[in-house]
Automatic annotation (TrEMBL):
One of its GO terms (molecular function) is FMN binding. Pfam families: FMN_red. The lineage of its organism: Bacteria, Pseudomonadati, Pseudomonadota, Alphaproteobacteria, Acetobacterales. This is NADPH-dependent FMN reductase-like domain-containing protein. One of its GO terms (cellular component) is cytosol. It comes from the Bacteria. Residues 4-149 form the NADPH-dependent FMN reductase-like domain. It comes from Teichococcus aestuarii.
């Protein structure tokens, strides 16, 4: 059966390297896996339980439904101050409060890109900690940390063949991981 996977980018800027990575994923996916980018992270207001009490913002509900309907989610994120960006954490915080949290039991894979030589690894390990509370099922390996990303992206697409191969392997592993989770 075909697998539908949604992708979420932790950067809002138009020229984002992580968005370039996210944009390139469909061409690296194994046969039968479709990848759809989640929109609207930047439309989610700052988390406030008083606001939640008035009803969930439409951007949260829509994203939650899209994640719930998907077989898995891939989060592609920059590292900000050795952690994940506040916008991503804010979105996750909102989504986690939905009556049926869409992350529980959901297969998740993580990717990061950075201009540094570590490729955002510290953000990935913070995100893994958050995923424990979400009760998501996070793929361990292969890890995708794109270091010196400015040398690997051209015209808004990931062009470096070595990196593309690592990502192909992660997406294939993710397909198998989802299959095992659904078995
Ligand atoms: C950064 N950047 C950064 N990079 C890194 O490798 N480790 C870090 O801790 C940080 N910290 C950090 C904090 C803040 C507030 C900003 C704005 C930036 C640099 C960051 O990786 C770089 O700007 C990336 O290009 C951001 O990703 P996108 O937007 O290109 O996807």
């Amino acid at each position: 059966r075909p697998l539908s996977v949604v992708t979420l980018c932790g950067s809002l800027r138009a020229g984002s390297y992580n968005a370039a990575l996210q944009r390139t994923l469909p061409e690296l996916a194994p046969e039968g896996m479709t990848l759809t980018a989640l929109e609207g992270l930047g439309d989610i207001p700052l988390y406030n339980s008083d606001v939640q009490a008035q009803g969930f913002p439409a951007a949260v509900t829509a994203m939650g439904e899209a994640i719930a309907a998907a077989d898995g989610i891939i989060i592609v994120t920059p590292e900000y101050n050795y952690s994940i960006p506040g916008v991503l954490k804010n979105g996750i915080d909102w989504l986690s409060r939905l009556p049926d949290t869409p992350f529980a039991g959901k297969p998740m894979a993580i990717q990061s890109a950075s201009m540094s030589v570590l490729g955002g690894v510290r953000a990935q390990y913070h995100l893994r900690q958050v995923a424990v509370f979400l009760d998501a099922r996070v793929l361990n390996k292969p890890e995708v940390m794109v270091a010196s990303v400015q040398q690997r992206v051209q015209d808004g697409r990931l062009t470096d063949e070595g990196t593309r191969e690592v990502i192909r392997k992660q997406l294939a592993a993710f397909a198998a991981f989802i299959g095992a989770a659904n078995a």
